[in-house]
């Protein structure tokens, strides 16, 4: 087996089927080739990092996986079934949740309301159906349970407005929302880019927590130490192509940077 085809770590992993798979995706923008036949596999319960220099095609790849772009060629498979996402809502409905760098949390709302953003629950009876009253108590109860289930100790009180939280806690709210309610895949775009050391560690721990809960994660990051700390495998993009897929065990950070920049091959 070549490195580029390396299967995920863990006993029997090579016999498992990917949760999400991209096959030979092509995406062009006029004469600019964003993706040039890129394949990617995400296996159950793994953290797959996607790294690459500026313009290597990371964002284009993620946008094709999440329905923001429709690839010109290639296939996308979720649980082995081919899917055709026409818009981000399609990917979300299929269980692919994405947390973008510019956080989509609502500062004025509390933690519970943020977890239920876009899927708010109404009170039963006429209060809900006619007066559109929200089931705040029920949502808070379920938000508390979800935060506990995911082991997010940094979010003790779900009634606190998000604007009162630290950057790391806000990121935790966004990640919790993506991971809650049975999502199949969580994609995190530069989740630690704007955070300090302590807060970054909090988010990295949260990513490990998601893995423990069996939620596979795709992590796009420029931060090599963070990638090497949490990733099971590392997909390296270069000039619109997949240059290699390596592991923190098989390669060093220096090796990864060399592959990224074209100074070395896997
Ligand atoms: N909407 C677009 N229109 C035209 N060209 C685009 C568009 N989106 C991406 N590209 C081009 O496709 C290529 C890949 O870009 P992409 O943004 O996917 O790279 P990236 O790895 O995410 O880079 P960065 O780390 O800088 O965000 C680049 O050459 C970029 O200029």
UniProtKB/TrEMBL annotation:
Keyword S-adenosyl-L-methionine annotated: no
Alphabetized UniProt keyword annotations: ATP-binding, Nucleotide-binding
Protein species of origin: Microbacterium alkaliflavum
PANTHER family documented for this protein: CARBOHYDRATE TRANSPORT ATP-BINDING PROTEIN MG119-RELATED, SUGAR ABC TRANSPORTER ATP-BINDING PROTEIN
Domain ABC transporter: 20-264
Coiled-coil region list: none
Protein name per the record: ATP-binding cassette domain-containing protein
CDD domains noted in UniProt: ABC_Carb_Monos_I (cd03216)
Gene Ontology MF terms in the entry: ATP binding
Pfam families: ABC_tran
């Amino acid at each position: 087996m070549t490195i580029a085809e390396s299967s995920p770590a863990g006993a029997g992993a090579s016999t498992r089927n990917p949760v999400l798979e991209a096959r030979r995706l092509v995406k062009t923008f006029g004469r600019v080739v964003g993706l040039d036949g890129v394949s990617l596999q995400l296996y159950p319960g793994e953290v797959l990092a996607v790294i690459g220099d500026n313009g290597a095609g990371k964002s284009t790849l993620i946008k094709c996986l999440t329905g923001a772009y429709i690839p010109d060629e290639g296939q996308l498979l979720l649980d082995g079934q081919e899917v055709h996402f026409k818009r981000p809502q399609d990917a979300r409905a299929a269980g692919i949740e994405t947390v973008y760098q510019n956080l989509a949390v609502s500062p004025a709302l509390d933690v519970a309301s943020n977890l239920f953003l876009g899927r708010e629950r109404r009170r039963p009876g006429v209060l809900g159906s006619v007066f559109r009253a929200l089931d705040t108590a029920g949502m808070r109860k379920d938000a508390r349970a979800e935060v506990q289930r995911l082991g997010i100790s940094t979010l003790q009180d779900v009634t606190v407005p998000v604007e009162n939280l630290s950057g790391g806690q806000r990121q935790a709210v966004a990640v919790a929302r993506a991971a809650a309610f049975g999502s199949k895949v969580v994609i995190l775009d530069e989740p630690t880019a704007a955070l300090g050391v302590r807060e970054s560690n909090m988010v990295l721990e949260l990513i490990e927590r998601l893995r423990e809960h069996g939620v596979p994660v795709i992590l796009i990051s420029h931060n090599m130490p963070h990638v090497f700390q949490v990733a099971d495998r590392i997909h390296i993009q270069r000039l619109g192509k997949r240059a290699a897929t390596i592991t923190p065990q098989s390669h060093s950070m220096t090796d990864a940077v060399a592959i990224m920049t074209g100074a070395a091959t896997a």
